[in-house]
Amino acid sequence: MSGEWEETGDDQGLSFDKPNYTDVTESANNDFDNGTSNENNGNGFYEDTSGGYDSAPSYGGRGGRGGRGGRGGRGGRGGRGRGGGGGDRNGNYRNGDDTEGGEHYSGNDPGMDQVKTDKPREVYIPPLPTENEAEIFGSGISSGINFDNFDDIEVRVSGENPPAHVESFDSAGLREEVMVNVRKSGYTKPTPIQRYAMPIVMEGRDLMACAQTGSGKTAAFMLPMIHHLLSIEGMDFYSRAPYIVIVAPTRELAIQIHDEARKFAHGTKLKVCVSYGGTAVYHQLQTMNTGCQILVATPGRLIDFMNRGAVTFENVKFVVLDEADRMLDMGFLPSIEQVMAHQTMASKENRQTLMFSATFPSEIQELAGRFLNNYICVFVGIVGGACNDVDQVIFQVEKFKKRKKLEEILNESNPKGTLVFVETKRNADFLASFMSETKFPTTSIHGDRLQREREMALNDFKSGRMDVLIATSVAARGLDIKNVSHVINYDLPKGIDDYVHRIGRTGRVGNKGRATSFYDPEADASIANDLVKILTQAGQQVPDFLSGSGGYGGGSFNGSSSFGGRDIRDSYGSRVDAQPVQQEPEEEW
């Protein structure tokens, strides 16, 4: 289990919104410095075998790696996981909650020079987004030969008085400024989610939309929202109070949505800004200070800007949660609640709230009811199922034979555009280093790499300078990487929904794709039953070793219902008292 959560920071110090998890495969040999506080010095006491999950309290000083105290006098962070300690703004110890991550304060005192951090500190300023029209409109994935198969996909709509769907972009009623950009993007025919979602948003209704990966969800909400903003008279284009707030779970997905929004707003006065961790705060604030109508953000940086008073919501007309199943789990739900409850945020009756994802379990639907008002549900295809345009092959491979099998597969066909998923950050770097020493140009992407390195790795892969990208699950969420021809699950994920998200990086928008997975009976038996069902529904061959595996624990996937293939209100009405879903920590970077 590995995961790095969103970092936020200014030019003086860092505050951490969520804990930094270390690969459990690593031994707990983390070093720490003596803490400094107003009371006395103290060392963090580190649990010997937990790999960074527990830390005993550090009285007045800084805790161990799992329970870090004050950074140069700044308040201590809660110990990771069970019984974590925390600190007040003076570095004094107090008990933490018995939860993943504990609680923390971020003090006002600057100072980083006395702190030994887990990774290097960098004030990163990303390059300015391109103004070249060919580059703005040339980054998307062109529709493939199977695009017309979208017409045969079943769409289920529920809710009170849903508007009729549209058959074309021309009949959607979009302003000409928007239609110009639709045509420049090469869009000729809307996908099912676009046909049904656009009129719902245009009519001012809240929406819960669930569709397969690679089906055009971003355009489905972005086009009608931009249309609406262009209709507002007397808009203050120099205000940094956004009219649209879009929240995404990962930094790269936020960057991608930002690029899509800029594309559809091209040639208008609308200003699109993006805020995410790992980059210089002052740079992002300067960008927003010149005006911000559309803000795309990760939860951690958005909360940081809220607390600074740098972002307010008095102008907000739309709130969008992309990858909403992750945004409403235990990791991000508190942040979303903070945003929705902000004193300047309009009530759910006075704003439009839109939620999009490829999976929508019933418990997540229940949580969504807290934020949605008289919403319409749209479910496209087999929700939670794999795209039929992806050819899935599964090999039985023992742990220590995976590397040889990977080499064999890459040698058999053109390796260009191969995305390889592993479970740990350490293995991502190790495998990338090994593959680079062979004939395959390879890079890696995960939460422990600096933001500059992460963006460089992804750009190298997108541009073709690197044939192979080794990634942890952070790259599985929403990334629209052009020309991904092959996804390889070197390590299978623990849950079937993550499998669907991973292989959904290929075979997008009607293009053919290929997915290969290494199944280790000792490690992956719990997912076997669900793999069989996914393969069967997609019309793929089920290998004998899977059908007879007798896997334990699976069975959570039973068609579309487990992933939210139906509106839960059809059964028992919408409940708003649901508890957040326990999810394994996920990298937000």
Topology of helices and strands:
Blueprint: E1 3-4, E2 7-9, E3 14-16, E4 20-21, E5 45-46, E6 55-56, E7 85-87, E8 93-95, H1 133-137, E9 155-158, H2 176-184, H3 192-202, E10 207-210, H4 217-230, E11 244-247, H5 251-264, E12 272-275, H6 281-289, E13 294-297, H7 299-308, E14 318-322, H8 324-327, H9 333-340, E15 352-357, H10 362-368, E16 376-380, E17 390-396, H11 402-412, E18 418-421, H12 425-437, E19 442-445, H13 451-463, E20 468-471, E21 486-489, H14 496-503, E22 513-519, H15 521-524, H16 528-537, H17 544-547, H18 569-572
Parallel strand pairs: 10-15, 10-16, 11-13, 11-14, 12-13, 14-15, 17-22, 18-20, 18-21, 19-20, 21-22
Antiparallel strand pairs: 1-4, 2-3, 5-6, 7-8, 9-16
Helix pairs in contact: 3-4, 4-5, 7-9
What would you note in describing this structure?
The chain is of the alpha/beta class and 589 residues long. The radius of gyration is 24 Å and the shape is globular. An eight-stranded mixed β-sheet has the order 9-16-10-15-14-11-13-12, sandwiched between helices. Helix 4 (217-230) crosses helix 5 and helix 7 runs parallel beside helix 9 (333-340). The protein has helices at 133-137, 176-184, 192-202, 217-230, 251-264, 281-289, 299-308, 324-327, 333-340, 362-368, 402-412, 425-437, 451-463, 496-503, 521-524, 528-537, 544-547, 569-572, and strands at 3-4, 7-9, 14-16, 20-21, 45-46, 55-56, 85-87, 93-95, 155-158, 207-210, 244-247, 272-275, 294-297, 318-322, 352-357, 376-380, 390-396, 418-421, 442-445, 468-471, 486-489, 513-519. The chain has 18 helices and 22 strands. Among the domains are: 133-380, 3-Layer(aba) Sandwich (Rossmann fold), CATH 3.40.50.300; 390-549, 3-Layer(aba) Sandwich (Rossmann fold).
